[in-house]
Structure formats: C-alpha cells, structure tokens
C-alpha cells in the first residue's frame, strides 16, 4: 500500500489523504488504483506524479518513435493527440504501457508466449525467461504439450519422466517468488493438448486449491476430439516424445471430466486449437500452441502483443452511436499501439525478433454494458447481439484501414509474405492482427467503465475504502435513472447491495429491470451469444466469463461448451458461483429423538440470564485451521448437556491478536453455557472478513472468527449450506472480487489475479 500522509505533510502530488491530486473526473476507486500501481513514487514510496503527468509521460514516450519514420514529424502534436484520447477516457493502453512508458524499465507489453521443449535445459531456460518477463510486468502463456508423459523412460538418466504437471509446479513457485515488485502480479496460462497421455491428470490439477494458484489452465481441444465427443467415439492419446499412439479412450468420458472439474472449480477452461490455427495470420512462422493468461491472445512461441481498449460508452450521443468520432479514436489507437512496438524495451532478444516480424496489436473494447444501458438495450436481447456485431465489425474494418495506412508510410510487417494478407486486395498491412477483446480489469476502473464486454457484476455493491470503512456504491446510470423517477433512496441501494441484482425488487420499475441486468441474471446461452457476436469480427480471441448460478447442473455446463464450439468461439471460460464454496449457516432446530431440545437460558435470582457452571472435566476435540494469519488451533469442549466452551490459539500469535482470540473464546463459552444456541453463535461469526482470507479444503476462510465458527458448526452438527451467490474476497483489501474475462478483479483497489 502506498504511504498514507496527513494534510500537513501533503505535497503537490497528493490531496493530503494519500490519494493523488488531479483535475480529471476520476473516481476514488480509480485514484486508489493509480496511486497503488501506476504513478511514479520516490524511494520512500511517496507519489511523485499526478494522473495528468502519468498520461503525459505515456503520450510523449509513445509519440517519440515517430521520428524514426519521419525525421520532420511533429511529435508534440502527436503526443497531444494521444494524451487527449487517454484523458478523455476514450482509449486506454494495457497496464504495462501506462506503468512503464517513459520510465527506466520501458517494458510495455502485457502478453507473452514462451516455448517449452522436452528437455531439462529448455524447461529451466523458460523458467528463467518467465521470471524476467514477470519482473518487467508481463504475463506468460505456455503449452506443456511437448513434454513427455509421466512414467515415460528417460534414456539419458535411465530414470522415468515426471510429466508436465510436475514442471508446472516449478513455474508456479517461481511466479510466487517474483510477485513483480508489488505493481503487477505474475500470471500464467498453462495449456495441454487433449491428446496428451497425461490429460486426465491435467484436467483435475486445480481441483486442489493448494497448488498452481498462479496459473489459469486450459485444455486445447482439436476438431477430431470434438467430433468424437458428438459421435461418442474413442480417440487416440499420442506420446509427444515418440509421436506414437499410446492408447485410445472415450472422448465423451474425457469431455465429461473437463465439465466436472469446471463445475467444481471453474477450471480448466477450453481453447479450440484447430480453430485458432485456421486464423493464424502467419502460418509459415509456425503453429499457435498457447495464449496469454486470460486466453484472448493466441501467440506464436516468443511472440508478444500490445493491447488497448476503446471505451464504447464515450461514443453514445443523442440515443445513437457516434461512428464518426469512433473512427477517429480507432485510427489514433492503432497508431498508438504500432508505436508501442517501437518504443518497447523487450525482455528477451528472441521476443523482440519475433514481435517485430508480425507487429501484432490487439485493439478491443470496454464499457459495452454502459453503452447498452445508455441506449436502453437489454444485455440479454437480440438487439444487444446485433449491436455487438455492428460495433465490432466497424472497429475491425477501421483498424485494418488504419493499419494499411501506416503500412503505406512505414512498410508491411516483415512476415507479410506468405501471410493471409499476401494477396492483391490487401497489398498493405502494418500489423498481422489488429483486434483482441481483453478483460480490461484495472484500466476499466481508471476509465470508470464497465469491464470489457461483461455485463454488470452488481447494480449496487459495497466498496471498502482505505481506512477499512465500507461504503455502498451504485452504478451511476442506475442512480440517475432512479432519481429521474423520484425513486432513489440510500436505503434501497443498501438493499440492492445484498445481492447486487434488482430483479426481485418491487421498488424498481420493470423497464429498469430489463436494462440493469447483472451477470447472474443473464443465461449462459445469452452470455455465449454476446461473446460469439464479438468473435465474428475479432482477429484474435475474446475474453469473457460465462456465468452460471450455484445450482447449475453439469449438463448445463456441458451444453454451454458444445454451444461455444458450434457458435465459432476460440475458447470459453465458465464460472459457477459457489464452485469455490464459502459456507454459511443453515438455521435448523436440533432434535433429540422426537423432542426439540429446549435451549432456553437459565435465569438467575434477579431474573437475568446466568451461565451454567463449568464442570471440572470436559471432553472435546482440537482442530487446526489454516487462516490468512497462520495456523489457528480451535478446541471445542462438551459437558453433560452439550457444547460448553471454545478455546482458540494461533500458532505464533501474541499481543493484541492473542488477547482478541482469548476474549472471543471467553464470550463464546459464556454464551454457550447461558443457553444460546450453537446455530446463533455460528451465524454471528461465520462470514466475518479480514483482509487476509485463505483456503482450507476447497473452502475460503475469511478470518479467525470465521474459522472458529466453522469448527464450532462442525462439532455442533450445524448443517451448512452454500450461499446462493458465493463471493470471493480480495486478499489485499477484503472487498468482493468480480469474475471478469477468466480472471478475478477487485474494483476497490485494482487487485487482479491475472494482472
């Protein structure tokens, strides 16, 4: 966290409350994200630039390469154009460009794919290269498909191979160690072909939550495999080392294992590898094996890509879309992203060489849901699908025109010969790809826009501010709409924040319910329809989360995967709420035989509750729970009547932490011996959150009190149910994480597991 300072110590660069000074219309959320991850700081952690200075720094650095093509170029004028596009929040480049442009590091790309061959030398060279990329602010994708399967003989050592999953663990540990200096966390994509002999182990690799936490994983599905699934046929597993068939197994069985694992944990995702390679613009350079961490950017080995997003909500005027202004921004954005390639300081020579051959850029969008709301179009409607296709077809067409215009002045990308553009009707093309739909995570927070092409996560939600205070915030367009109708109230916003949805509230008019739909209000079929609409006019791929309610069946997920294949998607990521369960109390009266147990409290002579005395001997159990603060040991004891006391001790705790746990234990014990029902105590403690949650046996432990509640509930035979909308909490600030484009993002502080 950046340093908090009082107004008496404030500098020209902050407001005196730890947030940067600015004249731009930035939300406090945006200022927190900027201060924490993007703005320059001195050696003591004090902010040394304002948001305006950051955007100016970036604009000037990206305009500078212009003179290498035209020595007389007016770089000041170009920098002003780039600056205006950013400070108007019409366009934002990817995070490394905002962080590093014009600074010593100078690494500006977000996406990299590294090759891994079947040798120890190659594997550990790639580990080293991964560390260098993560240190510079990038994310990495790998295919582990070339590594021989577990148990295969290794002639050079007369041993046996440990298989691809064991080596993934090495990459995971290295990523955990780097952590990228606190600005961007390391993120990886691990891909394995469905015909690899270890595919079944890979599918279930992340059902355990104690490993591969720095990886997203996806199975690369082939057309032959998908056809075998539909025909209920077997398919061949191929040893990549020998190229020989190992055995044949049921495609439907493997497909159902993918479905089962995704139903349980949200992973693996799937990518349709043959489909990706059919649209590979430079097949002479090789085949695509992997993607970036969120799956939207397929890349050749050693390629990188620079991404940027247009904020569509800024182009709504008079009930329509201002395509004239959108065309200008597309042209400026393509120019900006092409210049990024020349301004970039690549972490490896191999990456520089391959990137300059193809000069891939990925222009995408954010604020799509905001645009639909302004146009009064429901997200889950045919009109929304048509709007998505119309907008993306325009951006795709104009981005190609802009790239061709640059090529006339600067030349085609070097691998143009033999590419898909090498034909008479496209004699000029500067960039092998121009469009990608990325999740936009933190840059959408800066721009004050909805993320990528996702629907709203919640109409109203709780935001945790820097001092831990929780504030209820609502989508500004919803607030405006309710105020215009005279229906707004703070109490209603708090009520909505409970679930995030307005669909069951009588206070909200039907016409607003249709427009303000959230991720869980939208059916998986409609989610896929939007993704497919954008994919039709996107060079690379589309990052999007297909949301399912907690009670979704495995069959529903299976049907979604098949629909994604038939609709032309290049990949799909699903998230079933509750798939990483957070458990809360289900109130239920206990019965002993046919009689309900009476928990009425004993009354003292003064008519007040008095606890029953503690006996000399009790019996009980002690359970260890891993919390974000360390191992917590919780003891629950019984007397002749029932549970009578609880003790909790942290392995290494002392001071205030130990005092607090002792106080909690005494009060719980007092309540139990006073006749308070176990259920009531668990209800009060379960779900209490601290900034350092953890995972234990597939469930999230929010805090030490939450851990005590879980042990007490288990011993007391309190039946547990899952929440209907299970929410994961941010490990940095404790606010709710939102699933966005295959990743989890915090809109309060900007934390992202993939960013």
Question: Would you give an account of this structure?
Answer:
The structure is a single chain. The chain is an alpha+beta fold and 755 residues long. Helix content is 36%, strand content 18%. The strands form 11 sheets. Strands 1, 2, 3, 6, 7, 10, 13, 16, 19 and 20 form a 10-stranded mixed sheet that branches. Strand 30 (737-740) and strand 31 form a beta hairpin. Helix 9 crosses helix 20 and helix 22 packs antiparallel against helix 23 (704-715).
Could you outline the blueprint of secondary structure elements for this entry?
Layout: H1 28-38, H2 51-63, H3 75-87, E1 91-93, H4 95-100, E2 111-113, H5 120-135, E3 139-143, E4 153-154, E5 159-160, H6 164-178, E6 188-193, H7 199-203, E7 215-221, H8 223-231, E8 234-238, E9 245-250, H9 251-265, E10 269-272, H10 273-278, E11 290-291, E12 298-299, E13 304-311, E14 316-317, E15 320-321, H11 323-343, H12 349-358, E16 361-366, H13 368-374, H14 382-410, H15 441-447, E17 460-464, E18 470-474, H16 476-484, H17 490-497, H18 510-515, H19 524-535, E19 545-548, H20 554-566, E20 571-576, E21 583-585, E22 591-592, E23 595-596, E24 619-627, E25 630-638, E26 643-650, H21 655-673, H22 678-685, E27 694-696, E28 699-701, H23 704-715, E29 720-722, E30 737-740, E31 743-746
Parallel strand pairs: 2-3, 3-6, 6-7, 7-10, 13-16, 19-20
Antiparallel strand pairs: 1-13, 2-13, 4-5, 8-9, 10-20, 11-12, 14-15, 17-18, 21-29, 22-23, 24-25, 25-26, 27-28, 30-31
């Amino acid at each position: 966290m950046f340093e908090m300072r009082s107004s008496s110590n404030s500098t020209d660069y902050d407001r005196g409350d730890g947030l940067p000074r600015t004249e731009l219309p930035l939300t406090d959320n945006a200022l927190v994200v900027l201060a924490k991850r993007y703005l320059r700081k001195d050696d003591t952690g004090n902010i040394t630039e304002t948001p305006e200075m950051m955007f100016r720094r970036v604009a000037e650095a990206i305009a500078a390469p212009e003179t290498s093509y035209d020595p007389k170029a007016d770089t000041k004028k170009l920098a002003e154009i780039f600056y205006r596009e950013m400070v108007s929040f019409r366009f934002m480049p990817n995070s490394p460009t905002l962080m590093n442009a014009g600074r010593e590091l100078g690494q500006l790309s977000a996406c990299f794919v590294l090759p891994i061959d079947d040798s120890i030398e190659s594997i550990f060279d790639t580990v080293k290269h991964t560390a260098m990329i993560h240190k510079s602010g990038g994310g990495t994708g790998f295919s582990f498909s070339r590594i021989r399967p577990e148990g295969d003989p290794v002639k050079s050592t007369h041993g046996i191979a440990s298989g691809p999953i064991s080596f993934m663990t090495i990459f995971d540990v290295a990523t955990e160690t780097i952590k990228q200096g606190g600005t961007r966390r390391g993120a990886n994509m691990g891909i394995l072909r469905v015909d690899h002999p270890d595919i079944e182990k890979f599918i279930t690799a992340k059902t355990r939550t104690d490993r591969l936490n720095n990886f997203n994983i996806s199975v690369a599905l082939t057309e032959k495999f998908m056809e075998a699934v539909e025909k209920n046929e077997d398919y061949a597993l191929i040893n990549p080392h020998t190229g020989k068939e190992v055995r044949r197994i049921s495609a439907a069985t493997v497909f159902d294992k993918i479905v089962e694992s995704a139903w349980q944990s949200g992973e693996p995702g799937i990518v349709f590898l043959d489909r990706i390679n059919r649209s590979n613009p430079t097949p002479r350079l090789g085949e695509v094996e992997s993607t970036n961490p969120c799956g939207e950017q397929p890349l050749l080995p050693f390629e990188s890509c620079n991404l940027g997003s247009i904020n569509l909500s800024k182009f709504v005027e008079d009930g329509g879309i201002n395509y004239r202004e959108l065309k200008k921004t597309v042209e400026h954005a393509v120019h900006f992203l092409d210049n990024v390639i020349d301004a970039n300081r690549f972490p490896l020579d191999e990456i520089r060489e391959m990137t300059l051959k193809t000069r891939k850029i990925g222009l995408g969008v954010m604020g799509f849901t905001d645009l639909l709301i302004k146009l009064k179009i429901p997200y889950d409607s045919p009109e929304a699908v048509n709007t998505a296709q119309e907008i993306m077809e325009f951006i795709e067409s104009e981005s190609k025109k802009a790239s061709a215009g640059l090529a006339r002045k600067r030349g085609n990308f070097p691998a143009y010969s033999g590419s898909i553009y090498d034909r008479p009707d496209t004699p000029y093309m500067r960039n092998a790809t121009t469009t990608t739909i990325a999740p936009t995570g933190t840059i959408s927070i800066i721009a004050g826009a909805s993320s990528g092409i996702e629907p709203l996560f919640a109409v109203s939600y709780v935001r945790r501010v820097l001092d831990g205070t929780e504030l209820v915030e609502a989508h500004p367009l919803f607030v405006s709409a309710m105020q215009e109708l005279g229906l707004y109230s703070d109490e209603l916003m708090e009520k909505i924040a409970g679930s995030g949805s307005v669909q069951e509230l009588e206070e909200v008019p039907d016409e607003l319910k249709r427009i303000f739909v959230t991720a869980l209000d939208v059916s998986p079929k409609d989610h896929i329809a939007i993704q497919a609409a954008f994919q039709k006019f996107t060079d690379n791929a589309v990052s999007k989360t297909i949301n399912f309610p907690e009670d979704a069946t495995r069959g529903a997920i299976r049907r979604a995967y098949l629909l994604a294949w038939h609709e032309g998607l290049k990949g799909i990521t699903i998230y079933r709420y509750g798939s990483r369960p957070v458990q809360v109390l289900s109130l239920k009266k206990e019965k002993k035989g046919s009689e309900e147990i009476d928990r009425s409290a004993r009354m003292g002579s003064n008519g007040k509750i008095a606890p029953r005395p503690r006996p000399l001997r009790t019996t009980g159990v002690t359970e260890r729970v891993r919390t974000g603060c360390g191992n917590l040991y919780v003891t629950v004891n019984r007397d002749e009547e029932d549970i009578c006391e609880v003790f909790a001790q942290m392995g290494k705790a002392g001071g205030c932490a130990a005092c607090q746990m002792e106080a909690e234990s005494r009060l719980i014990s007092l309540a139990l011996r006073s006749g308070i029902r176990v259920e009531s105590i668990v209800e009060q403690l379960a779900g209490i959150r601290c900034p350092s949650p953890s995972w234990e046996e597939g469930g999230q432990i929010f805090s030490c009190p939450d851990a005590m509640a879980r042990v007490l509930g288990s011993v007391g035979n309190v039946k547990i149910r899952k929440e209907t909308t299970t929410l994961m909490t941010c490990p940095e600030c404790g606010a709710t994480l939102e699933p966005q484009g295959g990743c989890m993002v915090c809109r309060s502080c900007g934390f992202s597991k993939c960013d």
